[in-house]
Amino acid sequence: MPLHVPAVPGPWPGGALDRAGAERDADDLIGTIRAASDTRVLAVLGDAAPVADERLLLLGVADLPSVLEWAFLGRSADGAALLLAVVEEEPAAVAAAGARWAPLRSVGGDLPADEAEILGTAVALSGWLRDAAFCPACGTRTILRQAGWSRHCPHCGREHFPRTDPAVIVLVSSADDPDRVLLGANAAWGGSRYSCFAGFAEAGESLETTVSREVWEESGVRLEAIRYRGSQVWPYPRSLMLGFRARAVRDDEARPDGEEIVEVRWFDRAEIGAALRGETAVQLPGAASIAHRLIDEWYRGIE
Q: Looking at the domain 165-299, which fold is it?
């Protein structure tokens, strides 16, 4: 029967899931857990999981007759094992429970913190399980180990693990007015949505260098007072978003790169507040993203 994950309070962006990493090397851990009566399963289809009444819907093992890959996510607060089931079609039990399939990027900000963490972990791991079945060195099909957390190549002996690519995202405040921030409109959004500046860390870069380079490339602004604010898993396809705040050296340097960023604009606190409340045509990042958190914290005066 479908089960709802219990509510366990935890700070954003989570921290309540016990990953129980020491258990992963146990012989046939997946088989043992699948046989346990209290095991709960989160099915993931692409980047979506079943949600009912704004909560993750967990299933029983018997509810999933067809699974592409299994993995051990960890244990919930009551000690029950939590499995990931990577599926390629909707299990009948999901529809029977009246649940909907919800992508992480759409629902992550509305779930309780512990459930958002579980969903982020599951989507990140499922993408790797689905897309990295073959050894990138020799092309041989790999063998899953550590309850779904590593792959072994039987031909060349290499061990492979899920990748996480560091990316930075930064909210830039004004050099002249602490009540203004700079946001950019990405060409991919048709110029209608404004967000913080972001990009991937390159080989040999520190995160602070990445922050400075990305903002300079996208907006022409030089930065000072760069401060780390927090991180968020963002498995699109395998990013870890590292959030920063920084201050512009000069406001009048701001200009879009014309390719990735089509417009940059200074917003005052009142404009940001109205946009957060949905009172203007300006669209800001969704609540599931760390960009929303950075903007919202600045608006509320959280330092």
A: Nucleoside Triphosphate Pyrophosphohydrolase (3.90.79)
